[in-house]
Amino acid sequence: MRLYVGNLSFSTGEQQIESLFSTHGAVESVKLIRDQMTGQSRGFGFVELTTEEAGRAAIQSLDQHEFEGRRLTVNEAKPMERREGGGGGRGQRESRW
């Protein structure tokens, strides 16, 4: 199950997130979203857990949990919506990571 994790400290790294989520099940991947120019974390990312049960347990336990001085937002990641029209999108799905 893929989860969105928001309101992260800009200094939080992938290892810290993996450690936090691994208490709920096996972590398949962690991806922090970073600014393309500076490499600085943008304060959110995605965690993929191997089972839906682990994902639901992580949401239940970690949403609004205080971590490194910030209250996390944890929920099921939603697929990106297709963009139509302007901005050169040509109706294609845009991926930022």
What's this entry about, in short?
With 97 residues, the protein is α+β, with helices and mostly antiparallel strands.
Q: In DSSP terms, counting alpha (H) and pi (I) runs of 4 or more, how many helices?
A: 2
Category from helices, strands and their pairing? alpha+beta
CATH superfamily: RRM (RNA recognition motif) domain
Taking all Cα atoms into account, the compactness measure Rg is: 15 Å
Adjacency order of strands in the biggest sheet? 2-3-1-6
What is the typical, i.e. mean, pLDDT? 89
Low-confidence stretches: none
CATH topology: Alpha-Beta Plaits
The main pleated sheet reads as: 4 strands, antiparallel
Order of helices and strands: EHEEHEEE
Which structural traits does this protein have?
97 residues; alpha+beta; Alpha-Beta Plaits; four-stranded antiparallel β-sheet; two-stranded antiparallel sheet; 2 helices; 6 strands; 20% helix; globular
Layout of helices and strands, plus pairs?
Elements: E1 2-6, H1 14-21, E2 27-34, E3 41-49, H2 52-62, E4 66-67, E5 70-71, E6 73-76
Written description of the protein model:
The radius of gyration is 15 Å and the shape is globular. The two termini are 18 Å apart. The protein has a single domain (2-76), classed as Alpha-Beta Plaits, CATH 3.30.70.330. The protein has 97 residues and is α+β, with helices and mostly antiparallel strands. Helices cover 20% and strands 31% of the residues. It has helices at 14-21, 52-62, and strands at residues 2-6, 27-34, 41-49, 66-67, 70-71, 73-76. The mean pLDDT is 89. The strands form two sheets. It has a four-stranded antiparallel beta sheet with strand order 2-3-1-6, with helices on one face. The chain has a two-stranded antiparallel sheet with strand order 4-5.
